[in-house]
Write a structure and sequence with these properties.
This protein is mainly alpha-helical and 127 residues long. It has helices spanning 32-35, 48-54, 61-73, 76-88, 104-125; strands spanning 3-7, 18-21, 91-95.
Length: 127
């Protein structure tokens, strides 16, 4: 399972694999052709209320992570869609935030790495 992160303002590359925009809003000033997005599941992004509450304030980071994890727990369909794609190829989570360390894509990657690996192992071990 390979999950990359990339800002929407960075040049797409073939090594990105399947590109997924993980924001509810389209990044300002980026054309759809230039972004080369393969999937835009808006329901996997942090809710509007959570995004506005966080406001990219690093002092709220830990609580944002916890709240976003809870939202992701309640959205297994969107997670499963990404997990299926990860079984086939590398996935790049594309985001618009300026802060490369404190954004929803970072949390989503962490969630996928923890939960999808574990869930897939459980499924394979069942008769």
């Amino acid at each position: 399972m390979t999950v990359f992160l990339k800002r929407a303002y960075e040049q797409p590359e073939t090594s990105d694999g399947f590109r997924v925009l993980v924001d509810r809003l389209w990044p300002r000033g980026v054309s759809k052709d230039a972004a080369r997005i393969d999937l835009w599941p808006k329901d996997i992004a942090p809710s509007t209320a959570l995004r506005k509450w966080f406001g990219h304030d690093p002092s709220k980071w830990e609580e944002f992570r916890e709240r976003y994890f809870l939202e992701l727990d309640r959205n297994p369909g969107a997670i499963e869609q990404l997990a299926d794609q990860l079984d086939r190829e590398a996935v790049t989570l594309v985001y618009g935030a300026k802060d490369k360390e404190h954004n929803g894509a970072v949390v989503l990657r962490e969630y996928l790495e923890k939960h999808v690996r574990h869930d897939r192992r459980l499924r394979r071990s069942r008769p």
